[in-house]
Write a structure and sequence with these properties.
Elements (H helix, E strand, L loop, with lengths): L10 E6 L3 E6 L4 E2 L12 E6 L5 E6 L6 E6 L14 E6 L7 E3 L5 E4 L4 E4 L11 E3 L1 H5 L9
Antiparallel strand pairs: 1-2, 3-4, 4-5, 5-6, 6-7, 7-8, 7-9, 8-11, 9-10
């Protein structure tokens, strides 16, 4: 009798500050050839989906201490970058009271088919780097719809 082993992709184990020990399959590595502005040496990343579908963590595989919380641009009042399937904004959490903000001037564009990413700094954008948004609304459980 021959045992059939499941098809396990190749990859690597990483130990991150936020997620602990995690396996990252080779096909889940997203390459940012130019890095992220301010972090040119961080070129390999992966996305860890948050418990909320509109949020994800962009985890660097070159600098395991580097992680960005991101929100899908489609969930924000401002329109996403034209022509992309995956358009994200890097989130800054408040240090005390106040709203979370999203960097809409420099969207993070990710092609999940080619596993390529890029943060595009749009100097002529009407949007800023710290646009407040209601993170609590995204985190709140959906309200049931009442039908009369």
């Amino acid at each position: 009798m021959t045992a059939v082993l499941p098809n396990v992709s190749s990859g690597t184990w990483v130990v991150t500050r936020l997620f602990g020990r995690a396996f990252v399959a080779d096909e889940d590595v997203i390459v940012f050839a130019d890095g992220i502005p301010g972090f040119p040496d961080a070129q390999r990343f992966t996305l860890f989906q948050a418990n909320v579908p509109a949020l994800a963590w962009l985890q660097s595989l070159d600098d395991l201490a580097l992680t960005f919380l991101m929100v899908q641009r489609a969930t924000l009042p401002e329109p996403p970058h034209a022509g992309t399937a995956e358009s994200w904004a890097i989130v800054t959490l408040p240090h005390g009271t106040g709203p979370a903000t999203a960097n809409l001037q420099a969207p993070v564009l990710i092609d999940m088919v080619l596993n390529l990413g890029r943060q595009v700094v749009q100097t002529d954008s009407p949007y800023g780097t710290a646009v407040p948004f209601d993170l609590e609304r995204l985190l709140a459980p959906p309200r049931p719809t009442l039908h009369p």
